[in-house]
Amino acid sequence: MIISTPIDQGEPEDSQDESFFDSASSESLVEVRSLWVPPEFHGQRLDKMLASAVPEFSRSYLQQLLADGAVTQNGGVCTKSSTKVKAGESWTIELRATPQSQAFKPESMPLNVVFEDEYLRIIDKPAGLVVHPAPGNWSGTLMNGLLGLDAALMDLPRAGIVHRLDKDTSGLMVVARTRQTMDALVKQIAAREVKRQYVAVSDKTWEGTKQKSIDLPIGRDPTNRLRMAAVDLSRNSGKLALTHFHLLDQTSQGALVRCILETGRTHQIRVHMASLKMPLLGDALYGGSANALMPRQALHADILAFEHPMTHQSMTFKSNLPPDFLGLLSAWSLSYNEKT
After folding, report:
1. What's the maximum distance between 2 C-alpha atoms anywhere in the chain?
2. How do residues 168-195 score in pLDDT, each as one tens digit?
3. How far, in Å, CA of 94 to CA of 99, rounded?
4. Which of 78, 94, 115 lies closest to 308, judged by CA?
5. Phi and psi (nearest 5°) for 323?
6. Distance between CA 239 and CA 48 in Å, rounded?
7. Residue of 22, 47, 124, 166 marked active site
8. What is d(CA 331, CA 269) in angstroms, rounded to the nearest whole number?
9. 166 is catalytic
10. E-strand stretches of 128-254
11. pLDDT digits (tens, 9 = 90+) for 310-332
């Protein structure tokens, strides 16, 4: 057993996880503990020792503290989880709020709610809004905004978010308000019963038939972990992915394309557009050209259709193109007069 002694007794001792740091005054909540390594932990990894010494906090949270320099030994900071500890050593850990531990908190922000009832909401997400907290974006996300809009969502995983859009993709998302609705929507999405359609622009020329389907599995790019890629499942891990594309209009400057998802893989449309040699305008990660008229990737989720999981009503929502998209289409003389 590892002896864990609070050095500063200014905080309550009954907190069970990092939610202890969720209050608005969390920046001032700090507890420093001194840890003594017993003989049975000699030669063990530092992260294993910490997990045993401070069991009321999650391993993920303790890893954050390690990375942030909150763990010291004889006054020296240690950030490596794999460091081997020695019997009799004295370590110190400073328990404090981290960006990740504070991520699941409500924030007031304007959200475009196009529909809501007691079971779900339809959100029209603007470009630039991150959906989930993640490194570099621990606050100011759609999840934070949903919690600010509805405190009851604190009881739902990911505040009821059942699917996502990339930061630079605008458009429609459905968000659950109850656990029963959330579970039902997840099943509908898995069964491909939620219809999601997008419009996209590329500055490349569309060639061949006006309708094409891309059936290429998608997985993590084995040469660049920041990207996804069309992969060979016999050699790389990945998941089946199918997207239907329809050419809506084309001029000498570029093409306007309708994208219909059959599956919902990470970066699916972006990867499949690139496989057509037509990367999205503004999507530098997948070879898209930069353009002052569209400083983000030219992708908008404009149609969302599904059966309401509780009322069983057939529902279809359509989002108007945002100003940056309209400006691009006007400048390139592309027509969006589509019958849907």
Report:
1. 75
2. 999 999 999 999 999 999 999 999 999 9
3. 15
4. 115
5. -55, -40
6. 34
7. 166
8. 24
9. yes
10. 170-176, 195-202, 211-215, 218-220, 228-230, 242-250
11. 999 999 999 999 999 999 999 99
